[in-house]
Amino acid sequence: MKQLLLVFILILASCQKKENEVPTQEADSSTNLDSIPTPQLTLEQANNLALLPLHCVDQEYPNKMGHVTAAPEDQKRPTVQHPVFYGCFDWHSAVHGHWSAVALLKQFPELDNASELLQKLTSNITAANVAVEIDYLNSENNQTFERTYGWAWLLKLQQELDTWNTAEGKQMAAALQPLTDLVSQRYVEYLPKLNYAIRVGEHSITAFGIAFAWDYAVHAKNEALKQAIESKAMEFYSNDQNCPISWEPSGYDFLSPCLEEVDIMRRVLPASDFHEWLAQFLPGIENGKLDLELGEVSDRTDGKLVHIDGLNLSRAWVLYGLANQYDQYDNLIEIADEHITYTLPNLVADDYEGGHWLGSFAIYALQEAGKN
Fold first, then answer.
1. Per CATH, the architecture of 2-26+34-369 is what?
2. pTM listed for this prediction
3. Which of 221, 275, 279, 318 is paired with 139 by a 20 to 30 Å CA distance?
4. CA atoms within 13 A on the CB side of 163
């Protein structure tokens, strides 16, 4: 495993600028960020990124269950408790590990390990296994399990499967759909009860939890889910101004509280309203002014500290998404390029703490970069 990851690091490093050559936004103003090319997801990179889900979607241990135990019989091994999403250290990482595999197979069907990766996916995502996952979410003490971070990635996985026009893709999409329907309904029930936005940079952040869910609602034409998200986004964020982005990053962030709010509001607001809102929310951003300090990781063997690598990647995908939707924010692309270029060479250390999930963040960020 370590040898494979070492190869991955060398390949990524060869096509990215060295870490100490990439300036931060606080560097000398004479630095020319235009010299940083927008990274692209290539077959070579895809082959190496595919090693991450290949080696983790069926890696049962170590495992963080996140489980409420009500009785002795509730103590089950991960493969029994979660027969679909038991790998990659925890449930939500297993979900976006599966998403990573599907996304790569769709874009690069000629992947070196395509057949092995597909076999693992189809073995996990079956109707019988999904039924066990549904029973777990319906159990009395676990109905809020993975709310809303894991829920959001599940809907993203369903959307990816729904748009994969292969026999295996259709089979897995049909098998997963009942669990997706349950999670969608959980959103509709939960959001009206949430009186206050959660504005942290980790799993529970509301803005991220509803952004991916919005994409699925639009894709699936699920009006109840769409309306629940739009109503809550407007209630929480429509009057926000002067987001303190200079306070970021916080120590364990892997999502930006300010930028994730931008990500959902660009989805739900009409164009003219959004531009007006954004100018008040992050003054100067309309002119390409964004005071972002690149996140630096001191110890990539620490599962919390390595979150900062994820922050750089998620910031990048938000900025790419904004520029993809509205041309007037194209001047933010260089900031996104800086973040992703800085982070990619550090993506995989020779441990499990970042490798089990950061690949998913890199793939999504590279997908958004590729739309420019």
1. Alpha/alpha barrel (1.50)
2. 0.90
3. 221
4. 13
Tell me the backbone φ, ψ of residue 110, rounded to 5 degrees: -90, 15
Number of helices and strands (H, E) in the chain? 16, 0
Burial of 333 (0-12, 13-18, 19+ CB in 10 A): buried
Cβ atoms within 10 Å, residue 89 = 22
CA distance 322 to 330: 8
Q: How far is CA 306 from CA 35, 45, 48, 300, 318, in A?
A: 27, 21, 20, 5, 19
Q: How far is CA 264 from CA 81, 148, 209, 261, in A?
A: 33, 14, 9, 5
What does the pLDDT profile of the chain (372 residues) look like in tens digits? 444 444 344 344 444 433 333 334 443 333 455 678 999 999 999 999 999 999 999 999 999 999 899 999 888 999 999 999 999 999 999 999 999 999 999 999 999 999 999 999 999 999 999 999 999 999 999 999 999 999 999 999 999 999 999 999 999 999 999 999 999 999 999 999 999 999 999 999 999 999 999 999 999 999 999 999 999 999 999 999 999 999 999 999 999 999 999 999 999 999 999 999 999 999 999 888 998 989 999 998 898 999 999 999 999 999 999 999 999 999 999 999 999 999 998 875 445 667 789 999 999 999 999 997
